[in-house]
Amino acid sequence: MSTSPTLVRQVLDRDVWEPRAAAHRERARTWTAPHLLRRERHEPHPVVDFPFEYYNLSPAQLERWHPGLDVGLADAPEHAALGAYVTRDGVSTVDPRRLASRVRGLRWTRSLLTATLDRPARYGCFGLHEWAMVYRSEQPRHDLPLRLGRSGTDAVVEAHPLTCTHVDAFRFFTPAAEPRNAWQLGREHQLAHEQPGCLHANMDLYRIAFRLLPFVESTVVLDAFELALEIRTVDMQASPYDVGSYGLDPIPVEVADGRAEYVRRQRDLAARAEPLRRALLAHVDRLLAHPAAHAPEQPDARDGQ
Questions:
Q1: Where residue 295 falls among pLDDT bands split at 50, 70, 90?
Q2: Dihedral angle computed from the Cα positions of residues 278, 281, 282 and 288, in that order, rounded to the nearest 10 degrees
Q3: What's the confidence (pLDDT) of residue 299?
Q4: With contact defined as beta carbons under 8 Å apart, do 55 and 206 qualify?
Q5: Domain residue spans in the chain?
Q6: How far is Cα 236 from Cα 246, in angstroms, rounded to an integer?
Q7: Measured between alpha carbons, how far is 169 from 142 in angstroms, rounded to an integer?
Q8: What is the pLDDT of residues 257-282, one digit of tens each?
Q9: Torsion, CA 156, CA 168, CA 53, CA 109, rounded to 10
Q10: Neighbour count for residue 42 (Cβ, 10 Å)
């Protein structure tokens, strides 16, 4: 066995880590390969393309496996070539010196995760954020027909209170919809309003997960990605858009039965998001406690993912 770099607690030989990396890559390609093919054919899919287009992790980065901080990989030239890694005596590991530049962001992320976990879930929004994004607008955000037409869509918004708690959903509300929301939200309000029943807050666990790369093992990123895809599907089923051409039935939140179905789905997704949120918090705590987090800052490692 080769001598491992300083602080490495475990070294994996190539015959151990390579199958893990291959399994991760194949799992990711379940989603990346169809997306890339659609992109090549200029065939957009407003549901399953969303995590690739809204969040800034490329398909290649999603496919790439990282072992996490303090785990060394023997005979790993493909990792050694990444800017986020250092190699010593034939063993490559994530460069711990780069962790210090992430501390400020990690502390904010910890505040967001803990605040969300400590807050009771709200289940009364009924997915109307997507309706508010097209309210009294002639330019829908997606090239899809509206199930109820323009006037029918506006009528649903006017008949139900808007109680969106998610900053990044609210920022896409039309000017006419903004004052109808219970809260006027900016980035400075996120810690005070993020709550675990929100579909978008749970979808955003994917962003939190990949921003921890390459310091965490990549499986948690794929877990978050796949949950985000499921959430996006429900989000669009409950939207004002007709997604039947993509094989999806609507969740008609304009009627009582549809609202009940939405809440049932919302509760299920929130329950599934909770262990992921707690796992991400544990990762953040571990990184903040790492000795390298308190060392002088080095260039950020994300360019080398």
A1: confident
A2: -170
A3: 57
A4: yes
A5: 10-304
A6: 11
A7: 15
A8: 999 999 999 999 999 999 999 999 99
A9: -140
A10: 6
